[in-house]
Design a protein that fits this description.
- The structure is a homotetramer.
- The first copy, chain A, is built from eight helices and 13 strands.
- Chain A is of the alpha/beta class and about 280 residues long.
- The first copy, chain A, folds into two domains: about 80 residues, ACT domain (Alpha-Beta Plaits); about 200 residues, Rossmann fold (3-Layer(aba) Sandwich).
- In chain A, the strands form three sheets. The first copy, chain A, has a seven-stranded mixed sheet with strand order 7-6-5-8-9-10-11, with helices on both faces. Chain A has a four-stranded antiparallel sheet with strand order 2-3-1-4, covered by helices on one side.
- In chain A, strand 2 and strand 3 form a beta hairpin.
- In chain A, helix 3 packs parallel to helix 8.
- The longest helix of chain A has 24 residues.
- Chains in contact: A-B, A-C, A-D, B-C, B-D, C-D.
- The interface between A and B is medium-sized, with 33 and 33 residues.
Chain lengths: ~280, ~280, ~280, ~280
């Protein structure tokens, strides 16, 4: 993979944004590998993502940033430029169920995850050996109703220590404190084992079984204070039938959970997800 | 297609049901084309469907029924046997949107719907010409808040007159009166334009757009008094993205609506759907 | 739908194309509704599509074209700009099977096909009434081994007379003469009832049944002289099982055939398909 | 999971098979958990699978077998009865690519594979550590053109030593000798990284890229002497576009390969696959 810079922009829509940005990139000698635009015509908002070949620029990243600052100001842009040579650092929060954790660790080991897994933080010790095989630091931080504040303080301290960019709740089964949701807005990704907004909260497979749905699903979303209500990144479903017990759903659901989580996380790691209000633009 | 009898059974589970039923069919010389069983081990209930080649029986249908009665009593069966040579009669209830109506009429015309469309009943006159081309009687029965009781009395009279077996709400957009839901329990099929239980009620595509889901769906279900809460027969979804407006969703959703409705209706027409509580067993 | 111009470009890849094109559009006051780029890094070729809001331009289409000519020359572009207010004219070639024809006619009638169906040309008279209901001229042009040259001369004359932009072989079942394939390169779309390159040629469902595949499919592609080997626009599949007879496959396959054809045709009508060698770039 | 016996039968079709078999099971007190039948009306052949609750039988397995022998003879059945308490033993044949191996080992570790992985046999040493973590014996059996006969003799010796029931080629990349294909007919499962019969042989993703297909797939099949031509157990596909390089296809394809292999293997391990000629009946 060649080193690329990813320029991510959102701003009020107006004529000339693309021309201005593309013109600036061209001045810098930038070779565009991939480009995506989206105009939200309801909210009159504009979204844009470019992948630029790093070696093509006749300037370094700081130079690029400085030059771009003026354009950004003119168009009132929210923007960032990231460097594929500095992959995002990930903390995996886990509990006892291993399928999502195992899947992400394996993808990373297989050099098939565009980020770095910095540590695993789990409220149970069960998955320590798995993390160890992949040579990822494992921290057992138990959570009880009484110790919840201390536990999350400890978790946040670890996240800070490892300079984590994104927290992934890989079937973590604990609800983050509101303050933590706020502090890490747009940087905590959860996998919920239903096709949201159906079956919010606990035991979604039980709920699905009771309702007699013919498809079950999984949803990867950013965590916000309201449970299972944050911006959705990715979803998928699989077919079930009357012959599926709750256990069958749980077993089959694991496959769709890990697929959806790994896909959603990949989008985030490659800066393909732009949050706007409670929705996402995903340049997949 | 050969003529077949379809024997549909549900009863409390116990050892020996299959043997008894299969033994009886064999005694009658019955050649089994297709057989399906399901044991609901939670509720200890048993479901069964056989397709028997009509010409293989050494008895007529009445003889078969009489003989079977004793077995049915012993096992406390709910049962019926239907004849593929007497396809179910369908009333299509429609409004202004044509996609589901057009799809079902075409499939019927193409000899690809195992039932007979007896009439179209619509609360707007728009689709009359379409029904006429297919030579299906069209009845315009307007519904206003004031005339609702008379309108549904008229609709029910038509249903009785045409000796209709199943009512299909092909995007009918009107809520049936509770009494009618009760009278036709298990015989009114609706298509709802969302992946239920998400987005019950009005304007599901608007709701889906607001929530920012990445898949939209449709649900074919039996109508009960509680809106969009009846037993689900079939569901499916298609992918959408941030670039889809509500209109795009509505347009693309039509394809999944008509697919799901035609599939669910086919199951019903072939007696593949067994209702138990608020859920279905579908021997697809 | 607002009126838009669609600017389609392909050319050798180099730095600065996007900037130049976007700069020109901005100079013209053009508001970009949708933009797509693709760089084929193997062949070093660049592809681009813009939708520009017609009313935003401070120039008419001819003015735009003249101004753009210089850029196009500099970058050795193959390019065109089309106007959504002048939808492409379609000739549907049909035979006896009605499902693809019925589907396209209905979508057009439902104002859900971004083109105009100018005529139906069929080698059998069976579908005349269907075309008539939609008020589309129907021409019965029989084809026999002996009359093939005359028949296709007649068909081509009709295509010319109706000023047809694109020919759709809606299960036409006849092989076009090589000269016609060459003359209408990139303007004849076929639906083949298999997942190409599997099961080229006659009776693909028989072939699929014999091989025991677990999915059957359909392929929408441009017609070239070599049978079923032209550039693929769209494909899809559905699941089958051991219980499906060839007739079941044929029946179920119809749904995927018409879906794939209508999707592929839509892409073509909206100028989303760029042919390069024997492959397509589809800005879906 | 309760212990079950699985009774698998195929025989020439005739009236009375189901009655006879179900009658016998009922005499033995057998509680049927799941039952599937299929009549191949083209070849007039009948297929049947029952899952019987072990504890419900008033006889042991040997008693059951003895009693059933007479029925089997009368109907010229090929049959077997297997015991879920004696899961099949699996040898995984691997090479350098880890994704299928890792997936199957993890599913087994997660108690989500209804079989026992007895050993890994690989022609490269790369995956030894992975096998070790799961505490599965790993045998490095290099294969070169010169040593091929000795290498496969060694592999067969290991298979015999571990009393292996089924060999899984988990991206093994070597062609088994014809004699071995014959000796283990119906007991060697391969995953091919294309939607067969498209792209037989080497480098299917290259072939898919060249042809410009819009979906790529994977096929799980029994190995026969003719390369990639054995009976198909399971297939699936995922969508690709013009923007996918061969490397992208290879990366994304891994997900469908491992899904299809694990599904197909599960069917085999649960005795859900009946081979007939070059096709399978899969009671999924």
């Amino acid at each position: 993979m060649s080193r690329v810079f990813r320029l991510i922009i959102s701003c009020p829509d107006q004529v000339g944004i693309v021309a201005k940005v593309a013109g600036f990139i061209a001045e810098q000698g930038g070779s565009i590998i991939e480009a995506n635009h989206h105009t939200d015509s309801v909210n009159r908002w504009f979204f844009m993502r470019h992948e630029i070949l790093a070696e093509s620029l006749n300037n370094d990243l700081d130079g690029f940033k400085q030059g771009f600052e003026a354009i950004a100001r003119d168009f009132e842009m929210q923007w960032q430029i990231t460097d594929s040579a500095r992959p995002k650092k990930i903390a995996l929060f886990a509990s006892r169920e291993s399928h999502c954790l195992a899947d992400l660790l394996y993808r990373w080991h297989d050099e098939n995850l565009p980020g770095d897994i910095a540590c695993v933080i789990a409220n149970h010790p069960d998955l320590e050996q798995m993390a160890q095989w992949y040579e990822v630091p494992f921290h057992h931080v138990p959570v009880t109703p009484e110790t919840k504040p201390e536990a999350f303080a400890r978790a946040e301290a670890l996240v800070a220590e490892y300079e984590v960019d994104v927290i992934v709740l890989a079937r973590y089964m604990q609800i983050l404190p509101p303050q933590m949701c706020a502090d890490y807005a747009g940087r905590v990704i959860n996998i919920h084992h239903s096709f949201l907004p159906s079956f919010v909260g606990a035991k979604p497979y039980h709920q699905a079984y009771e309702r007699g749905v013919k498809l079950i699903g999984a949803t990867c979303h950013y965590v916000t204070e309201e449970l299972d209500a944050g911006p959705i990144i990715e979803q998928d479903v699989i077919r079930v039938s009357h012959s599926h017990t709750i256990d069958d759903m749980r077993r089959q659901g694991r496959d769709v959970e890990k697929t959806v989580l790994s896909r959603g996380l990949r989008y985030h790691l490659e800066d393909r997800v732009l949050i706007h209000g409670n929705k996402t633009v995903v340049f997949a």
